[in-house]
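The following record pairs a protein chain with its ligand, fe (ii) ion.
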Amino acid sequence: MFKLANNIVESHSEQTHKQAVMYLFAYTRKHFLSEENMMQSIGFPLLTEHKKIHDSLIEQLTKVSEAPMKSDEDRLHLKNFIYHWLTKHILTEDKKYYKFAKENNITSQ
Ligand SMILES: [Fe+2]
Ligand SMILES: [Fe+2]
């Protein structure tokens, strides 16, 4: 996802930018879905809450990416938003299920 966010900054034409955003969306959805499926399979108790956070990112991402991308600064803003959100999400929310899995001796499947 970080790499896909970088591609957005590096895309300078309207078309490559749209494509980069589309890839990011597709990848993010896929990642969230597999994460949620995994959480369900291990009985993670905060699944509903976590799913809401994922849905809210998709919503925010939609808004931010719909804003006009006229300059490098706009693209950088989108990238920073993604980096900031992702880092925060991984370090706070995703960490909760690693902890849950570890405490319950669930190894990766
Ligand atoms: Fe997550
Ligand atoms: Fe994640």
